[in-house]
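Support request, priority: normal
Reporter: lab tech (M.K.)
Component: structure prediction queue

Hi team, I submitted a job for UDP-D-xylose:beta-D-glucoside alpha-1,3-D-xylosyltransferase from Ixodes ricinus yesterday, and the status page still shows it as pending. I've pasted the exact input below so you can check whether something in the sequence is tripping the parser. The sequence length should be 177 residues. Please let me know if I need to resubmit or if it's stuck on your end.
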Amino acid sequence: MAMNLTRMREYRLQSIVEDLMKKYDKKLILPDQDLLNIAFHDDPERLHLLSCRWNYRTDNCKHDSSCRGETAALLHGSRYVFVKTDKGPAYRAAFLAMKEYQLGTSLEANFINKLQERLRSTRKTPCVTKFLAFLEDWRGLARELDIERGWNCTTICGSVREHTNAKSILQYKKKLK
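Reply from support: The job had stalled in the queue. We restarted it manually and it finished. Here are the results:
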């Protein structure tokens, strides 16, 4: 959940949640989420619901109509899907690819390609199928960001020794455009 902390302080969310915690202590299953749901139940105008593009959940993988064909931009990792393989192999693959990604390196080569490898080698589920379909858009965005950072084929593809001649580098650069 994205929050404007200044507004939440003005709303006195901390004290509201503390009071609710005392009242519902033993009845809460997912305490943080339950308390926020209770707190905002009477003030729904204080919430801005995100579209599934910015709050892509496992349920969205199963119900095509819920996202109107939008590519996910933010994955919602509820229900342990990032940490338990059996809960959501696609989400786990994304988590591991991001965990291995080193900031400041090519997103396409070091995140998107790794994610694609992981997705292709994991158990096929509706989310794996969806994420594989999203990869084209994710790759395009990663490539744009890499280009903005001034990374060329050498940076993206590895060392120049991997390229046998200048022609192969030029061909790869054309693919980037």
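Residues 82-176 form one domain. The radius of gyration is 21 Å. Let us know if anything else looks off. Ticket resolved.
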